[in-house]
Amino acid sequence: MKKTGLVVVVILLVLGGAMSIRAMQHTPDASARVERVNVAVDADIAARHLGEAIRFRTVSYQNEADMAVDQFEGFIAWVKRTYPEVQAAMTLTMAGQYTLLYRWEGSDPTLAPILVTGHYDVVPVIPGTEARWSQPPFAGNVSNGMIYGRGALDDKSAVVAQLEAATVLLRDGYRPARTVYFSFGHDEEVSGTRGAAAVVDILRGQGVQLAWTLDEGSFLFDGMFPGVTTLLAPINVAEKGYLTLDIVASSEGGHSSMPPVHTAAGHLAQAISALEDNPVPGGLDGLSGAMFDTASRYMDFGYRLAFANRWAFGSVLENQLSRVPFGNAMLRTTTATTMLSGSVKENVLPIEAVATVNFRLHPRDSVEDIVSYVKGLVENEHVKVRPKEGGNAASPVSDWQGPGYASIGQAVREVYGDVGVMPGIMVAASDSRHYGQIADDAYRFNPMVVTQEDMTGFHGTDEKLAVDTLAQGVRTYVRILRHGGGNGVGQE
Ligand SMILES: [Zn+2]
Prior knowledge:
Blueprint: H1 2-25, H2 43-55, H3 69-82, H4 84-89, E1 91-95, E2 99-104, E3 114-119, E4 142-143, E5 146-148, H5 156-171, E6 180-185, H6 196-205, E7 210-222, E8 231-239, E9 241-250, E10 254-255, H7 264-277, H8 286-296, H9 301-308, H10 310-323, H11 325-331, E11 334-341, E12 348-349, E13 352-361, H12 367-378, E14 383-387, H13 403-416, E15 420-426, H14 432-435, E16 439-451, E17 464-466, H15 467-485
Parallel strand pairs: 3-6, 3-7, 7-16, 8-15
Antiparallel strand pairs: 1-2, 2-6, 4-5, 5-17, 7-8, 9-13, 9-14, 10-12, 11-13
This protein binds zinc ion.
């Protein structure tokens, strides 16, 4: 007995020691460290330009007829006038009438081109909320080191930063080896079916296959991952899919004074419970695993211990992450019951009760996978699943070991220092689902820092961006274009 106890203690000590060693080695990749690079950028001019861009009310409405055409035309004229070097060095084609497509010809036609893009349309400000803004939403005011207004984050800052970066490079006499396209979309907020889709048609018609694209996506995060004090830069390599299902429960109608054991509403409630109690299987494999593997290297010892020893703690970690909405969204296809309907009157039994459930598909799941999973979970003689129109699978997953990813990651580290660069998954839709059709890889990333507090500005109130943040964005685009426009990282 005694001997067995001793053996167990020794095994535990050895195991604990091995786990701790792994945790201590689970640190940022030292070989990824790069020299900081200084890029001279006039932050005040960039800020003034973003303020000017915000003044055009380039609002996308669900109803196309509401579009203020003069504002879009005004913006296009403003780009031409404000960035004369770009206008002179590149060829401009209008796509879908209001989307700008610039072509900057490279010196080496054998290299596949790249495309860097953003959108200049914005979502409306909810009428009646203007007074909640600390600056008027379309004044483009710059005050206390901040640029205020609709589009300051999403996504006029990216458009302006790209144009500023191209101008910096042109003034330096830089010419890319690879042809570089810039596109500035006018209808991303209403799905890009006229702008980005037209760009794709034009390029496809010319036989262009892009090496990679860079569109809006994740920002650099400050303090948004638990236990992480450094900046993290998730470069989104995929975009989740979208599916809505109606769960329909039926029963005999009639008077509510003599109800059956379960009404249609009761059957529906059981189905909703089953969905919430049985989330779509997911986990720390593939892309989700790679993302958290990098992030955890910047976390405190407890997290590192767990992530470095996933064979032992994997399921504990997955459970923990699944409890947090962000973590859950990264690990699996999410399930959200959003709309309910039943009887039309309080004393009438429902013949049909319907729950509308919205799913955001992880790249590992197809639309068919989710439909059959949900059917298996909830369908019975009373409950049926009815798919709604318009579902789509997640995008393909782009290479996070390829040259485009490396160019972006290198640029981020040159400007921001040793930050955690990792592949991420985009939960919202972007124009990349169009551009990805003609590109080997599509990346989604805005090289600017946001905090949790800034997040409410996206499509919300008091959207704003720090002048310094914009300038860092310009610097990073300069470096991205240097690496991407060359032959790859280090080949400027
Ligand atoms: Zn956007």
